[in-house]
Amino acid sequence: MPRGRYSLHDPHDHTPLGEEHFQCAPGPSGWRYVSRLTGPAGDQRGSVDLTLDDLGRPIRLELHAGGWQVRGAALDGVTWVRTDPTGTHATEGNVRAHAFTGTSPAFLVATARLLRLTPSSDATRVRLVAFTDPVLAPRTVDQSWALVNSETHATDNAPLAVDEYQVTALDTGERHTVHIAGDVVLAAPGIELEDLESPPSTFV
User: Fold this and answer.
1) pLDDT digits (tens, 9 = 90+) for 131-143
2) Distance, CA of 74 to CA of 111 (rounded, Å)
3) Cβ contact 190:8 at 8 Å
4) Which of 107, 100, 145, 97 is nearest to 24 (CA)?
5) CB 65, CB 74: distance < 8 Å
6) I want to staple 188 with a disulfide (CB 3.0 to 4.6 A). Which of 6, 140, 157, 178 is the partner?
7) By the 8 A CB rule, do 129 and 101 touch?
């Protein structure tokens, strides 16, 4: 069960945004990731709880940030309920999309798991619902994912397979690179893996 810490920063000006302390593991239903978010001063900022099924679809999502809460799942596309900080108002949303995304590294692993690309695969288009900070506002985004390289690196424990993805935002054409090993993001825009207590899990 990988357990560790990511540092998060603004991908454009590198302003520190805080840290994400996480643990994740494959399980009977597929894969689960839980984390807590802290600000640059160590203050509590929120949490992420994501469970995927064996096909990489989100069967349970719960996000907390700034007093806001989102609960969602794959249902007729993706469906979610967003609750305001007072708890008196809840709005439901539904979009014909494949999955969810957001600032957490969990969503990069989830999308890669959903698409199951190979180096010989064509770039694949995916529609996602992003929950944006700091109030978890939903926004539908279209991306293109391609697995451009897959390499195995020797480590002290066992060989580590690292996949390099090229992700393109289809509304702006902006491209960036994401490196993933098993169920851990090694590097991505705005994300750095700072600490990992055990090796990444390997998906079967």
Assistant:
1) 998 899 999 999 9
2) 13
3) yes
4) 107
5) no
6) 178
7) yes
Full-model pTM: 0.95
- Dihedral, 111, 130, 97, 178 alpha carbons, nearest 10: -20
**In 3D, which of 168, 163, 166, 159 has the Cα closest to residue 149?**
163
Query: b vs e for 74-110, b when ≥16 Cβ sit within 10 Å of the residue's Cβ?
Result: beeebbbebbeeeeeeeeeeebebbbbbbbbbbbbbb
C-beta of residue 123 within 8 angstroms of C-beta of residue 102: no
Q: Would you tell me how many other CB atoms lie within 10 Å of the CB of residue 128?
A: 21
Give the span between the Cα atoms of 10 and 154, in whole angstroms.
31
Tokens describing residue 161: 């397979």
pLDDT band at 204 (very low <50, low <70, confident <90, very high): low
Residue type, 111: T
